[in-house]
Amino acid sequence: MNVLNRLLHRRLTQVAFLLAGLMLAAAVAAPLLSPYDPITVVLAEKLQPPSTSHWLGTDHLGRDIFSRLIHAARTSVGSVTAIIACILVLGFAVGCFSGYAGGRIDALLMRICDVFLVFPTFILAMFLIGILGTGLTNVVIAIVLTHWAWYARLIRGFVLSLKNRDYILAARVAGTPKVKIVIQHIVPPVFAQLIVLATLDIGHMMLHVSGLSFLGLGVSPPTPEWGVMINDARQFLWTRPGLIVYPGLMIFVTVMSFNLLGDALRDALDPTMGEKQ
């Protein structure tokens, strides 16, 4: 059974693929799918119940909930994509260089990683945002700085386990340049592990972005974002609970979908899975 078949053989994984695909499609096509401007205030239509004109109703400022949810998906998915990409690049560069170089360079880089790993990531992110200031860009920077060290350590471990393999030692003896050895023999297996880690971490990063926005440290109103929407709806918890339920449900579905995809991808890339099935 090939990787794709192992990836899609479970019904739950197929559902996760569908939900994640719909979320990504909504994020990309948000301007085309939303029937209203997500930030236009219409006080005459505030707190309207679901209807044919407003499928999920309106919020306390008369803004269409459905339009804001779709545009919030664009904000959340876009920011998490940027975070994951930056973390992978930084963690991969530091981890590969540290693991392959070894010696004092390795020791120095790992001590720097230890400094970042000492503190809880969310608390450290709040501290960095306090220094950098609020806003989506600073949230991305703060989350990258609080997570890259964990990836660097994992990648270093992968590199250390690979660099003394027989085929790599043979390439060294044959005089193959170090850069070529890294690109041909170390990057491919490490990259496969990184894809799994990144997929599993998408939900975690999304919770960070939403949590910081909920606390007023991330995305600033009126920009639609699920954490911001939950924060805005707190005062209407008992009168209009849907204002909190809708963005909360979007966060739950997105995080669950990518976690399931990460688990399925890890199982599909595990060479021992074929023996277990």
Give the class from helix and strand content and strand pairing.
mainly alpha
Instruction: Spell out the helices and strands N to C.
Output: HHHHHHHHHHHH
Tell me about the biggest sheet?
none
Shape: elongated
> How many angstroms separate the termini?
10 Å
Instruction: Report the uncertain regions.
Output: 271-277
Quick one: CATH superfamily of the domain at 74-257? Answer: MetI-like
Strand content: under 5%
Q: How large is the count of helical segments? A: 12
Radius of gyration: 22 Å
Label the CATH architecture of the domain at 74-257.
Orthogonal Bundle
Number of strands: 0
Indicate the percent of residues in helices: over 70%
**Looking at CATH, which topology of the domain at 74-257 would you report?**
MetI-like fold
Overall pLDDT score: 85
Question: Regarding CATH, which class of the domain at 74-257?
Answer: Mainly Alpha
Description:
The protein is an all-alpha fold and 277 residues long. The chain has 12 helices and no strands. Helix 7 (136-162) packs antiparallel against helix 9 (178-214) and helix 10 runs antiparallel to helix 11 (242-269). The chain is elongated.
